[in-house]
């Protein structure tokens, strides 16, 4: 029978056998594939999604979420800007064929005010009515306390949306 220190030593510093090396290579390969193609890690830089998401927080985007369906209003999505190096996290508020506008800080979709069921900061934005093209989505951050001129938002083609925020 092995004592506790021998068990820990064997666990932390195992003998390098071909079987162990093969197992380590399989785990490394599976992890790389998982975190590149399925669960894309994203560190949030900026305050555009506050109060929902905090600056500096780590999140995962599920890349398979829109394989069989389209994003829906209210979904927080990852948007590719420059490959996988620059990804924006924004909320979908309207889909292709709908018109969107802001009047005194209130979101209007197809001429009707849309109740937003997620935390949004108050604002006084005014944005003229705009029809979203087919296959596109209108996205905006939850932190609307900054002036509209300093906020990245607007129409995005579906091919740039890489997935839904998982966590």
Please give the radius of gyration in angstroms.
22 Å
Major sheet strand order: 1-2-11-3-4-9-10
* Topology order in helix (H) and strand (E) letters: HHEEEEEEEEEEE
Uncertain runs: none
Give the termini separation: 44 Å
Helix share bin: 10-25%
- What's the overall average pLDDT, rounded? 90
User: What is the 3D form?
Assistant: elongated
Biggest β-sheet: count, sense, barrel? 7 strands, antiparallel
Q: Total number of helical segments? A: 2
Strand tally is 11
Class per helix and strand makeup: alpha+beta
Strand content: 25-35%
Give a quick set of tags describing it.
167 residues; four-stranded antiparallel beta sheet; 2 helices; elongated
Written account of the structure:
The chain is 18% helix and 34% strand. The protein is elongated and about 75 Å long. The mean pLDDT is 90. The strands form two sheets. The protein has a seven-stranded antiparallel beta sheet with strand order 1-2-11-3-4-9-10. The chain has a four-stranded antiparallel beta sheet with strand order 7-6-5-8, with no helix packed on it. The protein starts with a helix and ends with a strand. The protein is α+β, with helices and mostly antiparallel strands and 167 residues long.
Entry summary:
The chain has helices at residues 4-12, 18-38; strands at 39-43, 58-62, 76-82, 86-95, 99-103, 106-109, 112-113, 127-131, 136-140, 154-157, 161-165. It has 167 residues and is of the alpha+beta class. Strands 1-2-11-3-4-9-10 form a seven-stranded antiparallel sheet.
